Amino acid sequence: MGKKQRKESRAPHGDGEEARGGDRAESSAAQMSLYEILGVERTATQQEIKKSYYKLALRLHPDKNPGDEEAKEKFQQLQKVISILGDEEKRALYDQTGCVDDADLAGEVAQNLHEYFRAVYKVVTEADIEEFEANYRGSDSEKNDLIDLYEKFKGNMNRLFCSMLCSDPKLDSHRFKDIIDDAIAAGTLKTTKAYQKWANQISKTEPPTDPLRKRGEGSEPSEEEFEAARKKLESRKSAKKSRQK
After folding, report:
1. Cross-strand partners of 99
2. pLDDT: is 115 or 221 the higher one?
3. Could you give the CA distance from residue 243 to residue 245 in angstroms, rounded to a whole number?
4. Is a pLDDT exceeding 80 seen at residue 217?
5. Using an 8 Å Cβ cutoff, are 77 and 100 in contact?
6. Residues forming beta bridges with residue 10, ordered by sequence position
7. Around Cβ 42, how many Cβ atoms within 10 Å?
């Protein structure tokens, strides 16, 4: 019975464009979508979704709110949102059906969550995110979150990366593998088929030279940098041809 009631909460789609803009505040609790809860458009990229998630998670993280049960509860609900929108397959299914099989993300609870997050979002700046990331990556807090999420997702690392704060698979896969392997060896965690499959794939790749560098550093070049590199390469080719004549 409970599941049937929960699945009645549907995200607007098709003709549901009226749920955007000024009509958002007037949408009923039953129409509140996960996108509205997170504060992004339905067309948002994964990068935009994660950026919004990081802003909210940073403010609600238990380390920043010791003893605050409300913040802890909202942080857990936020993780449920990103576990759907941050996973391409689950997001596609949600976009198609609009169904949320979770009482924490339906009806009046969803409306309250949306209002709470909007108030929190305003007080977090880009500088706050950078400061938090610098202190978080490589910390005991990050390690504890990694272990908690490993258990929550039963070793499914793709889902883990969706919810893990300030993480980047390209930078952190080898580092996270080492931490998890140590925890498994110590008996703190149990290995799973999903983890072993992922770990075997990671073992075949080269680790980054500086895994704790700031995310985004050393990433893909901008259009301006790419164009400059292209022109430099063409110039070298032209000079080489001139010497050969």
Report:
1. 10
2. 115
3. 6
4. no
5. no
6. 99
7. 18
